[in-house]
Amino acid sequence: MITESLPDNEACAGSLKNMLDALSVINGKWKLALILCLVQSSKRFNEIQQEIPGISSRILAKELKDLELNDFIKRHVYPTTPVSIVYEATAYSRTLKNVIGELSTWGGQHREKIKASMRKQS
Q: What is the mean pLDDT of residues 96-119?
């Protein structure tokens, strides 16, 4: 039984708006994984792709561009031959530390249920 009182309609609407705003910039399967990958250290495109299994080059390029547009990552171009491009997390992306930690904890606690559900969908 839940002993906490439920939020009123106004508080619920405000929370929903905040959540939808957040999801509009970190939506999708890959964005939080990419942020986590880059918070650990700066990486080149191929290093990111090797670290995150299952992401295609096309999707990775699109997601990196979206993250850069929303100031979650910085793209550094070095005038070498060939040109080197390195991606790094910004301080703004580090504000997601608690969100990523909570999602990781939740995913670990419910891993078997999630896997079973995914098997049913296939």
A: 90
